[in-house]
Amino acid sequence: MKAGIIFANSGPFSRPELFGQLAREAEELGFDSIWTVEHVVIPQAHMPYPGSKDGQMPGGDEVPIPDPLIPLAYAAAITSKIKLATGIVILPQRHPLYLAKQLATIDVLSHGRMLLGIGSGWMKEEFEAVDVDFHARGARTDESIQAMRALWSENPTTFHGKHFHFHDVKSLPKPVQSGGIPIHVGGHSPAAARRAGRFGDGFFPTIVNPEKLKEAFGLMHGAAKEAGRNPNAIELTAMAVPKIDAIKAVQDIGVTRVVFGPPSSDAAKLRAGLERLANEIVAKI
Predict the structure, then answer these.
(1) 3 state SS of 132
(2) How far apart are CA 46 and CA 43, in angstroms?
């Protein structure tokens, strides 16, 4: 079982000293990945965060959320092994030509450690602020995945879709990783599960309950088979409560990576918290 740290760039970890400590110590203690989150703006007011009691996002609407990619480039310079992941980028808000170049750049700088977690977004008001059609987000997400994979593998590249069009363009450098940067589809909806089956190298539902996870994985498997893909080749990641029984429960349904939030935002206590997760939880499953 692999283990990663999510929310690696938000709140107090928006500060370079604490973020740098988290990246270096997570790598030293054997965590396989750090995952950054994204919201470019938080409109006031906004539609309720799914599943929250007060409608606000985890950590509240005042939590600092830096760009998800720039901290990963910073981490690339101060680490050598840990994977650099987004969990998630709101894909339909970004143009694939720009994003493909940014991701390939980090992949080159990190010697092939980039991992792209994507979602289609949930906050309608944020889409309105960046002038992107909220109701077209699913189609834009699917097209963007296909367009970026073409940009990473073809030279020159041509792509014609409903939302993105380009013809005979060269996008260099290409990613270091053979086959391009792995794309892990995030989200808990049936649409996200089906998207992971059709397009994903991995699936990362924002679900903790094992029974609900199993349902989502079933939808993913069905969509993969319909698309002529091998569902067992799609890597499964899940958020987990840092308890052995909880991790074994998701491991039993096929999860091979669990992710935890940082165990402390106190620099003096962070390493001890990471050591506990690594030695007392992950190492025993």
Answers:
(1) coil
(2) 6
The backbone torsions φ and ψ at residue 3, rounded to the nearest 5 degrees and listed phi first, read -140, 140
Q: 50-57: which pairs have CB atoms within 8 A and are 24 or more residues apart?
A: 50/122, 50/188
Residue type, position 212, single letter: K
* Surface-to-core class of residue 284, CB atoms within 10 Å of its CB (0-12 exposed, 13-18 middle, 19+ buried): exposed
CB 175 within 8 A of CB 124: no
- Quick check: helix, strand or coil at residue 99? helix
Torsion 57-59-62-67 (CA) sign: negative
Residue pair 193/205 in contact by the 8 Å Cβ criterion: yes
Q: How far apart are CA 89 and CA 95, in angstroms?
A: 12
Structure confidence by residue, pLDDT tens digits, 2-42: 999 999 999 999 999 999 999 999 999 999 999 999 999 99
Give pLDDT tens digits for 34-87.
999 999 999 998 999 887 888 888 888 899 999 999 999 999 999 999 999 999
Tokens describing residue 78: 């101060």
pTM over 0.70, yes/no: yes
Q: How far apart are CA 120 and CA 193, in angstroms?
A: 12
The token pair at 38 is 């994204």
Rounded Cα–Cα distance for residues 267 and 183 (Å): 32
